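The instructor's notes for this session suggest beginning with a concrete chain rather than abstract definitions. Hand out the sequence below and ask the class to guess, before any prediction is shown, which regions might be ordered.
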Amino acid sequence: MNSTAPDSSSLGLGAVGAAVTLMGIGSVVAKAAGIDGPVLGFHRAWGAAAVYGLMLLAIRGRPSRASLRHAAPGGLIFGIQLVFFFSSIQLTTVANATMLIALQPVVVLLVFAPRFGEVVTARGWALSAAAIVGVALVVFGSVDSPSWSPAGDALGVAALISWTLYFVASKRAREHLGAVEYQSLSLIFSAAILLPIAFIFSGTLDPGPGKWWWIPLMVAIPGTGHLLLNWAHPRVPLGLVSQLTLVSPVVSVALAAVLLDGESVNAVQIVGMALVLGALALIVRGPGSRR
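After discussion, reveal the predicted structure:
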């Protein structure tokens, strides 16, 4: 055995880091696309379902009734989450939409982590709180932004709840399904529930003139992030994965400040980003955050 080879947990942490970075980029792409939330969600889901379905066939995967049953809850929840998040990010700032999603670790630590036998120590709670305070600074450093919308923030809260439920459903599904199998099968259910939602709330499946090219970007960038995250679930504790997702809004806010109008970053937000990254570095370096 090669003693220098990285262990499963190290690979898992690396996968989570790459995943949350890609999902942070995906938030900015979704904002820049300017496509109605349900329509973007539907095309994101069916496009990714086709890609990962082909991957599943390539590795000779064959879905069974049991695998479809395990994939269904996460897929249905993820479809609804796409609508909430994409609609939120079109109505409010990237910072607000991503900060609300970043509050997921609080929900996971309070409600779900104990159900998976994961206990967080006082050190873990303190570092998580510091990271969340940093995210709040990133967001509320620009309270006067003209892009702010209470309706967008309300949708962001709905996205937070559905994202947390999807996160936990994926953790459970990965106990029975491989990463590619779960990704491909769950997205079938996502696309299925998004089809009527898009027709009802948007009245069309057309993204708009000159906007089709955004769809492959949304499939490739955040889609790969979700695949990596699902691959990492069996290798990294639920609470730690949830804490590491706090990197995603930092990536989103930084990119939005560079690429999008009305999303500038000030000194308070920079301090918040530093606090988030510092707290996460301490969480990853030491096992004291859990026992």
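Then share the key points. Residues 16-208+220-289 form one domain. The two ends are 28 Å apart (CA to CA).
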